[in-house]
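Sanity check record (used in CI):
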Amino acid sequence: MYSAIASSKPYRFIIGPQRRKFTIHSAIVARQSDYLEKLVNGDFKEGNEKTVHWENVDEETFVCFWQYAYTGSYDIPREEPKITQAVPGEGSEDGDEMESPKYTSEIIDELLKSRRHEEGRDEGSRPSARDWEWGWRKNTKSAAEERPKKPSNRGRLWELFTALRPTVENEAEVKSEQKNEGYDFDASDLLCHARVYVFADCHGILNLMKLSYDRIHQTLRNLDLRTETLASIIDLDDIIALVDYCFETPAPPDLKELVVLYSACNIEKLWADEQFQHIIETHGDLSRAVIASLLRR
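Expected output for BTB/POZ fold protein:
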């Protein structure tokens, strides 16, 4: 097997608008998916010339794929990342643009007030969405001591989120990586993992889809914004960039579901950010999905 791989012709990938060139052994590329096998060995231009130009793939995502193709895993570069932040309005040209519902802000504010009342927290006057985290922190100890065995509405939604599509073999690898790197729940990795997932979905690389999905899932599980020790050190911009990316690009439904459930579980913290409010109000499908999830709390 190794001799066949080593002796196979190099396949050249021209990546991004800068047209940077990368090569991978043809046999390695062909093993990744049926789509890539046809790309490499098919009787058409890309197969005959052993070259393809992927203008819309960024270099960082491709390097992750390159490493995965040879090793079965990938690392996110820690030096000089070349991530391009998602720009509002630059989604899929072919995608349907949904009109966001009017008064989305008012709807979510009312849902937050209603859910706080149902939770029955004894905090005196009820804080607004922007002040919620302070009121919750003040009463964390007493709430934990008096919490009944039955999980709260928010707790049940979080359990639903944590139970999404576990894949044991990859989850163990993710936890091992985090252990080796220390306290590394780096939210800045989320966007890269999401791009790898969308890339893998586009090219039918199922195992890479599982791996990148689990890394997103595990990272978000470790970034519970209602956890006092994490709330003050998490950069919301990275989480909000993930949400924006998933609804500005044609991301797969299961990735959107993951992001929606996480947003609903942590809506009090996220809603205090004006950028998140703007994204919610801009994307009607996102706002409807988050509101539907909040109604389950």
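The two ends are 53 Å apart (CA to CA). If this sentence no longer matches the regenerated tokens, the check is flagged for review.
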